[in-house]
Design a protein that fits this description.
- The chain is an alpha/beta fold and 536 residues long.
- It has three domains: 279 residues, Ribonuclease Z/Hydroxyacylglutathione hydrolase-like (Metallo-beta-lactamase, Chain A); 180 residues, Rossmann fold, CATH 3.40.50; 48 residues.
- It contains 15 helices and 23 strands.
- Helix 3 packs antiparallel against helix 7.
- The relative contact order is 0.13.
Length: 536
């Protein structure tokens, strides 16, 4: 009975943990890394074909995005998750595959021009389609017997539609242990979805720490704050550009804007247009509107009971085609554009930034976490200009952040959630946070709450029966080339190409043996002239 920490250790993305019990290999989440990462991750220490099942906490790509790769490498087991998560993954994993294929095609074109091998996608649409067939939808609160050694239960964790923490009862012989995997703990009082539910007891807990070293601050009135941002931007004739995660955050913003319009909180701009320019976000919105109402909070259910759609209002337009997307940047009517990706590293949002970042009358409004190394974080941190599609674009637009709108619990929320365990867990493993966040949360648990906690690095192994680490690892930092070394590499590559050309010239000269004297003299003059120029 052992747990191995693989991904999201001292990092925010790439969640992946291996549980071994009774000879069975179970993976909890299989996420993709996003943005820059500080530490290397070990590979999954067992063959993909030997993994019996995956327990998936929620649909976000940093928890689910590598499932098609897992399938490609041989996994054929079941994937247990909630029904809503399965429905969201239907669209998100296909989108991931299309992005992988598109990026590989782009890189292959560049490689072909450079005489280098083509680039293969990490996985393709067939891998995504096939892994989706392995999903098994589960209800909240119902124990599910995976095998003779493992029973699990999904509990609403309030982070995203269908998100869950996973309670796992482990049995080997006469020994039983209970471990809880928090997934991403949700913020309280979010629109649409319910608040996180607490769990009563566990021997061990794996706890996320995205905001483990900070507080969201005083809870503000989101709707009035957002209305103020919209009012002053439209008043000066600009666009409000909102980089937003397609799943979860976009739907929350639509909920807020519906309230703003219903209460006429923006003056002198009747019917101001709102565009959701993300095919993925539009599909996700459909999933939200068609989901079982058990996933929704009381306020949202009340809106629906009154005959109103909580995510639809006059002036809302859903763009699908690239032509419609491009047209938004030639239409000078002040508007709101909500587009993915939320961290600005891909998707249509980059085009909207190119056409709006340099305009002083516009606003870029961030409504979610911006990971280090992403374009969104660069802009948020105050960059004066950024590179978009090969062009330098000045950052003249007003840059704002909607405070408190986070799908993650802050430090206080995480401590409150872990405080629901009675008795206290024997040990809390802290992950899914950058170095400062996970270490600070571990410190707070130990010193402020009297709960033993530790933040393991990738590759660490813990024996759940003995209650001790059988392998403790040190973090291996990702090595980043310095600009000087990159310049040296480019120079070396250029010199290599030069020598290749010289060798081809020598071979060509050897083929000239027997050529007419006049032609040889002409070629000799050309080579001599070139070498003299090189010496100058």
């Amino acid at each position: 009975m052992k747990i191995t920490f693989i991904g999201a250790t001292h990092d925010v993305t790439g969640s992946c943990t291996l549980l071994e019990v009774g000879g069975h290999n179970i993976l909890i989440d299989c996420g993709m890394k996003q943005g820059s990462t500080a530490f290397e991750n070990v590979s999954i220490p067992v063959k993909e074909g030997d993994i019996e099942c995956v327990l998936l906490t929620h649909a976000h790509v940093d928890h689910s995005g590598n499932l098609p790769l897992l399938y490609k490498n041989g996994f054929r087991g079941a994937i247990y998750t909630t029904e809503a998560t399965r429905n969201l993954c239907e669209i998100m994993l296909r989108d991931c595959a299309n992005i992988q294929m598109s990026e590989a095609e782009y890189k292959s074109r560049k490689a072909k021009r450079a005489g280098e091998p083509e680039v293969e996608p990490l996985f393709d649409i067939n891998d995504a389609e096939n892994v989706l067939k392995l999903f098994r939808g589960c209800d909240y609160g119902r124990p599910i017997r995976i095998n003779e050694n493992l029973t699990v239960r999904f509990t609403d964790i309030g982070h995203l539609l269908g998100s869950a923490c996973i309670e796992a009862w482990l049995v080997e012989g006469e020994n039983t242990r209970k471990m809880v995997f928090s997934g991403d703990v949700g913020n309280t009082c979010q629109p649409i979805i319910c608040d996180p539910e607490k769990v009563r007891e566990a021997d061990y807990v794996l706890l996320e720490s995205t905001y483990g070293d900070r507080f969201h601050g005083e809870r503000r009135e989101y709707i009035n704050t957002l209305a103020g941002f919209i009012q002053r931007t439209l008043d000066r004739g600009g666009n409000v550009i909102i980089p937003s995660f397609a799943v979860g955050r976009t739907q929350e913003i639509l909920y807020f804007i519906r309230e703003i319009k219903n209460n006429e909180l923006v003056k002198n701009h009747p019917g101001f247009p709102v565009y959701v320019d993300s095919p993925l976000a539009n599909e996700a919105t459909s999933v939200f509107m068609q989901c079982d109402t058990r996933y929704l909070d009381e306020e949202t259910r009340a809106v629906m009971a009154a005959g109103e759609n909580p995510l639809v209002f006059d002036g809302l337009y859903l763009t699908t085609s690239t032509e419609e997307s491009r047209a938004l940047n030639t239409d000078m009517e002040p508007k709101i554009i909500i587009s993915a990706s939320g961290m600005c590293d891909a998707g249509r949002i980059r085009h909207h930034l190119k056409y709006n970042l340099w305009r002083q009358e516009c606003m870029v409004l961030f409504v979610g976490y911006q990971a280090a190394g992403t374009l969104g974080r660069l802009i948020y941190d105050g960059a004066k200009s950024v590179k978009l599609f090969g062009d330098d674009v000045a950052v003249n637009a007003e840059i704002q952040y909607l405070p408190g709108v986070s799908g993650h619990a802050d430090k206080g929320g995480l401590l409150d959630w872990i405080g629901g365990f009675d008795p206290k867990p024997k040990l809390v493993f802290v992950n899914h946070g950058d170095e400062g966040a996970c270490e600070e949360l571990a410190r707070a648990l130990n010193e402020e709450k009297g709960i033993k906690a530790y933040a393991p690095y990738s590759g660490a192994e813990f024996d759940l029966l003995k209650g001790e680490f059988v392998r403790i690892t040190e973090g291996v930092r990702v090595r980043k080339e310095k600009p000087a070394s990159l310049a040296r590499k480019r120079a070396d590559d250029a010199f290599r190409r030069l020598m290749d050309a010289v060798n081809r010239l020598v071979l060509a000269a050897q083929d000239c043996d027997g050529m007419a004297t006049k032609d040889l003299a002409k070629l000799t003059g050309m080579v001599t002239s070139l070498t003299e120029k090189m010496r100058k």
